[in-house]
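Re: the 330-residue chain
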Amino acid sequence: MKALSCLIKRVIRGGFLSPCHVRGKGGEGVKISHLLFADGTLIFCKANKDQVTFLSWLLMWFEAISGLKVNLDKSELIPMGYVENVEELASELGCKVGSLPSNYLGMPFGAPFKFVAAWDGVEERFRKRLIMWKHQYISKGGRITLIRSTLSNLPIYFMSILQIPRGVRLMLERIQRDFLWGGGALDRRPRLVRWATVCLDKRKGGLGVKSFSSLNKALLCKWSWHFAKDRGALWNQVIRGKYGEERGGWYSWDPRVSFWKDTWCGDTPLCASFPSLFALVDPKEAWVKDVWNGTAGRGREGGVLASLGPLMIGRWKRWRAFCYTCVVRI
């Protein structure tokens, strides 16, 4: 597919195809000409006959160079917005007309943020699994194992990209509850334990079943880390080009967050986690927005620690002088 990518770039440099320009309120934005992953390919161009004709020629050149065959029967021309002559353009390219939302790499493409219908495939996979187990005698321990190892992992791909709607989450949890307490037949039998208790860790009296709500939040939070770390990734550039960026990529809803006394890093305040360090700091009422320096560096010496120096140096000198006085007196 590298040959196809090179052809597309050369055609765009020649002005024969126009890429999709993602641009926000400020900045130049990002231009996207094509997306390639395995056998899934998206190519962007303007909705006019000249560009579609050039695209058709480009695909023929690619077939001649690589010896591969583009399956136009499985290809679609998807209009963005209203296009009057979309049927004519599809005929020129030799494919059918598609529409949004579509499917790309198993994910809904062009769907609204909370598009519930996109999760229908997940529910269908749940029920197909249960049909396989329905007529088998499975103990309660076996059902717990199947829920933890199979059912809880089925929607992970979707939950790593999308926020699961509340109705979908409750429906999937209901299927798991019915399977657990209904003997594998999905009967509505009395629940012996609250589902929140079932989802607790075994050390806390639960059964270790994954909570879809907590799992979804954990999977989505990883993108915050990747956003700060993978600056050169295309998706990162698209988000920054469309929505902008503030404070080096980190932002807090509340500017008045105490650096030492509020729980903002971990499960306990920093003053409790590092009491010796907190004793040296002056002043102790510092805010995160004042202490954090996103431009101080990106190594171990950068970030927060690079900004703590001015706060500690005065107290450190006084503490060192006090120790020296004590030694002299002894």
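The two ends are 78 Å apart (CA to CA).
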